[in-house]
Every structure is written in C-alpha cells, then in structure tokens.
Design a protein that fits this description.
2 copies of one chain form a homodimer. Chain A is an all-alpha fold. Chain A has 2 domains: 25-87, Arc Repressor Mutant, subunit A; 92-227, GntR ligand-binding domain-like (Four Helix Bundle (Hemerythrin (Met), subunit A)), CATH 1.20.120.530. The first copy, chain A, is 65% helix and 3% strand. The first copy, chain A, is elongated, with a radius of gyration of 21 Å. At the A-B interface, helix 3, helix 4 and helix 8 of A face helix 3, helix 4 and helix 8 of B. Chain A binds a DNA duplex through helix 3.
DNA sequence: CGCATAAAAAGTGCATGCAGATTGATCGTC
DNA sequence: GACGATCAATCTGCATGCACTTTTTATGCG
C-alpha cells in the first residue's frame, strides 16, 4: 500500500537483517523477565509485583501487567486473581515430567530427521558435529554448550514439523536453568560427543528407529546429570 | 468494611453483569474468545479489534488487551505491533504438522498409559469404552463426540506425565475446529469404536508398543477424515 | 479514469487514577 | 502474654485519556 512517510523518529532501518520486533515495550519485558527466570536471576517462588517491575523498567503498570499475563500463559509465572505473580516453582515431579517429555520429543525429532532431512541438512549436521571434537579435547565447556544447543536445534528443524519444533523449543526453554551446569560434570563432554555420534550416524544412515532411540537415551542421561542441580525444595 | 474474609468471594467479583463462573474479567474473556475461535464462531483471518470486543463484552479496552495478549501466547491469535489481533489462520502446512504432532503425542500417551495406568484407570477406560457401544448403534454423533473427548482425555491422564498432558491438551484445543465434523462422515462412528477397541485391548494387556501404534494410527485416520474440512477460506 | 498524495477516521500503545482486595500492624479482650 | 478483630498501607483489576500509528477516504495531477 501507500507509504505514509510523514512520521519521523522511528528507525526505519530495515535492511536485509531480520527485523527484530523488539518493538513494543511489552515484548521486550517478556523477553527480559523470561530470561531472568530462565537464567536463575529470579528464583522460583519469588513474587513479581507490578509496581516494582514498572519502576525497574521505567514504564507504567499497564505494559507490566500484559507482560505478566503472557509469562503466565507461557507457564513461567503463576497467577491468581488479586495476587502477585509468582515465579513458577517447578516441582520435582513436574520437572521429571518435562525431562521425560523432552526425551520423547527429541526422539521424535531424531527419528523424523533421519527420515526427512535433506542432503544438505545431513551434511551440515555432520560437519557441526565433527567440528565439535576439538572443543571436547580442549575441554571448552562454554563453547561446547553453545555447539550443543546448535546441534539439537538442527535436529529439531530437520524433523520438518513446525508444531513439534514449537513444543520442543518451548520445553527446552523451560528446562534451561536445570541443564546449564551439566557440562561441568567430569567427562560429560566426551560422553556427550559420543552420544551425538550415535545419533548422527543413525541419521546419516536414514535409520529413524536407531536415531530416535539414541536421542531418547541421550536426553535421559542429561536428565540424570541435571537432577543433581534440581533444588529439591519441594 | 470487610465483611467475610472466610474464604470466598469468587462470585462476588461481578457487580452489574450476570453471574460469572470464575475469576477475573480477563479470564472469562479468554475462555469466551478461545471458545468462539475453537468452535468456529469466529473464522481464521478475522480481525479482532479491541474496541469492538470491549463494547461487546461491556468492559474497557484494558482487559481486552490482556486477553488478546494471552490468546496470542496460546497461539490462537496472531499479534503484531500496532495491528489488530488476527485469528490464527492455520495454514495447510502447519495444520498438517499439528495433526502429525498430535498422532505422536497420542502414541506416547497410549504407550505410557499401557505401562503406567493403575488398575482403576484401566477399568475406568474400559468401562467408558464399552459404554459407548450403544452410542454407535444409536448413531448419536453428538454424544459419541463427547464420549470420544473423554476417552482420549483418559488416555492423556493415564500417561502420568503432566507436561505431556499439557502439550497434548493444547494441541487438541487448537485442532478442535478442524475435527468437529468428523463423526458426520458415514461409518466413522463404528470405525472409531473399533480403533478405540484396539487401543483399549493393548492397554489392558499392558502392551505399550501396540497401544502406541494403535493410537498413532487412530489419529492419522482422523487427520485424513478431517482434511476435507480444512482450508475453509484460503 | 488511474495513480499517487494528503487529510480524516479508526485503532493501538501506554500512562494515570480510582475502587476493591489483600496483607500487615495495631489494639482490645481474655 | 496469646489470640483474634479492626484499621491502615499496599497492591491488583479495570476505566479513561492522550499520543502515535495504521487504515480509510478525499483530493490533486497526469
């Protein structure tokens, strides 16, 4: 349509770069708060009162309320009428169900990836994987962790199923705080690499069954490794 | 001024409007709008502007905005800055991915149910199933549909995994408008009963593998049956 | 007429204000 | 001194208002 180029001020700097719709205040706050929760900057059980958040982000309470509403729908905070929002306390039982669900989802993704990945995708996955070997030898936990995220994301995308992708990404986000420290465990890096190797091999062979099982087992192990860090407060 | 701080006040929230079941205005609106979308009272692609909704529900725009925010997080409406909310148009491709995901999830639930259901749960499932036979003979589509929902819900709960339950319920909700008419197809009722029968039998035998496969196949068939109704506008 | 432009209308984003609920502190009773 | 009711401070839920953006309608020029 027409471009009413009358207004000024707003950055119309839309280039090739994906436009990050950080736009509205609310979206930024959702991301910021979600990040704090996920990274543990705010602890489960903590109250998030609107006024404090409003002054902290230097906005009014209206956008804060909308952000909390969305966070509630995302399951990151609990909300009850006339009560402050509370950072969701992921109980041990629910945490376990999330890890189990994650294992199932990863299994599905790996199986579908083995069946559906394009030649390019398979190659990219294999390269990504092989490239991480030096990180293992170097003991670069931080870097390997980044690689690990990328590796799994490729698996999710390779399944070519948008809804599954959505579910698995969401589940991973909520599990993030409980997995962060897993690569600190001695020998976990090398083990992780070996497990990835089984998955990659199966996918390259287009063996869905094997890939699914290997991915399931992989997550199960991570689950065990992470269980240590789950605060059994409840 | 306080009167009874005993425990309730739930119904007291309303002043001029009729009795309301639960909680805040926003929650009611979320339910109401979600219901309209899911039942097809509002069609995909339709714009939901705040002012119209506000006057329709006789509230101000503030709660409307919060409701839309939540519906957006639920994936029922799409939102972009400075644009009206739009009922999510589930494109053919995404719809397909949801049905596929649904089949996977149902498969997981059936398998886990076969492994984990208590004796009581198994008996209840079997009774529910057997009881539906007369609905099939009577050709009671509406009633059978209700039974069907209950049957599947039992499967989801029987898996004893809260996160999977959450995902499968959410996916089902979003697929609802596309499944509504499935039992109108001739012979679908009897077929559905037979398929349920295979699932129940496997679960009673605690055969997870068979139960999972049967449930997966069951949903796949529903997917095919529903495909006819998809792509209403676009 | 077609097309682009500009003004008007409609709509969204956020701030502010007030009523009612909740929580905590104060005070009375035993 | 312990327990419970009463009042004050605090916070949530929602309405309203204004600035900015998008969409629609009106207008000028070829």
């Amino acid at each position: 349509m027409q471009s009413s180029n009358k207004q000024i001020g707003i950055v119309k700097q839309v280039k090739r770069r994906e436009v990050i719709r950080t736009g509205t205040t609310v979206e930024q706050m959702v991301r910021a708060i979600a990040d704090m929760i996920v990274t543990g900057a705010i602890l489960p059980g903590e109250k998030l009162d609107e006024i404090s958040l409003a002054s902290r982000f230097e906005v009014s309470r209206t956008p804060v309320r909308e952000a909390l509403r969305e966070l509630g729908a995302m399951g990151l905070v609990g909300r009850e009428p006339n009560r402050s929002a509370i950072v969701t306390n992921v109980t041990g039982s629910y945490l376990h169900s999330m890890f189990e669900a994650m294992a199932e989802l990863e299994g599905i993704c790996a199986r579908l990836s083995a069946e559906r990945m394009t030649v390019d995708e398979r190659r990219a996955l294999e390269l990504e994987h092989r490239g991480s070997m030096r990180l293992v030898h170097a003991g670069a936990e931080e870097e390997y962790s980044a690689h690990n995220t990328e590796f799994h994301t490729r698996l999710y995308r390779g399944a070519h199923n948008d809804h599954v992708l959505e579910m698995v990404m969401q589940t991973r986000a909520r599990l993030a705080p409980f997995r962060r420290a897993q690569f600190r465990l001695p020998g976990r890096l090398a083990k992780s690499y070996q497990e990835h190797d089984v998955i990659v091999t199966a996918i390259v062979r287009a063996d869905g069954q094997a890939a699914g099982q290997a991915a399931y087992a992989h997550v199960e192990i991570v689950s065990d490794a992470s269980a240590v860090f789950a605060t059994p407060g409840e």
